[in-house]
Amino acid sequence: MPIDPGLAIGAELDEVSFSWTATDVLLYHLALGAGAHPTDERELHYTYERDLRVLPTFATVAASAGRHETPRVSFPGVEIDLAKVVHGTQSVTVHRPIPVAGDAVARGRIVDVLDKGKAAVIVSETVVAGTDGSPLWTAQSSLFARGEGGFGGKRGSADKVELPAREPDAVIDTPTLPQQALLYRLCGDRNPLHADPEFARAAGFEVPILHGLCTYGVVAKAVTDAMLEADVTRVSSFSARFAGIVLPGETLRTRVWQDGSRLILTTTAPGRDDAPVLSDAVLTVA
């Protein structure tokens, strides 16, 4: 089915009611690699229910916790083969600290559909509130669909984040686990691209790759730990562009520049000649 931007842009998505528990939060943190130092008090804030704190990037999986079915890329005016799709960008803005457990309602819409020639980009926004109507978080993401461009839509512009013209204030090396993708998919994203070698090859990759949103969470935690003393309540928002893949087991290198209330960062894979992983990334400090 060709993309129909006239039908897609502005379309309201189905309202979704969902809930999560401390177990979902603990699993998410463990899937990001938390607990590597199990007696470290800061790590226990991620991995032990006593004084548990929620990393704001949990917002990306809260509604899918416990989901077992393979995801679909199906919106009004958009039907795309899952094998053609990778994450393009992600941002989360929290309006207050995410509770350890809760009930919420998500309301989403398609913000834009861009025609990049050989690919399409579908931009969506989701606003999440508690069942009492109090705002919890707002998330915006884009999906990059290879081979789905050329439908005559607008191309859009690239929002670049300029890096300061100086050495970074911090360089953080973060290992990932060989089984990281297999752990992270238990948070609700069962895309076979991250587990099935045959599916990954059909999608153009030599081996299954790490979920982009796993990388997003891993980096957010690493920067929060290194720059904010692991105080997740100081994170107001985090946005990033997915500039390249991560292979499970690789070490990530994140360079961070302090810029007022913003932490500007880039992440690369030093084992692959510093191949870009995240770009145009900003963590805003509350």
From TrEMBL:
Highest rank taxon of the organism: Bacteria
GO biological process: fatty acid beta-oxidation
InterPro entries per record: HotDog_dom_sf, MaoC-like_dom, MFE-2_N
Coiled-coil intervals, chain numbering: none
Recorded GO MF terms: (3S)-3-hydroxyacyl-CoA dehydrogenase (NAD+) activity; 17-beta-hydroxysteroid dehydrogenase (NAD+) activity; enoyl-CoA hydratase activity
Stretches assigned to the Peroxisomal multifunctional enzyme type 2-like N-terminal domain: 18-147
Domain MaoC-like: 163-263
Similarity annotation: Belongs to the enoyl-CoA hydratase/isomerase family.
Protein name in the entry: 3-alpha,7-alpha, 12-alpha-trihydroxy-5-beta-cholest-24-enoyl-CoA hydratase
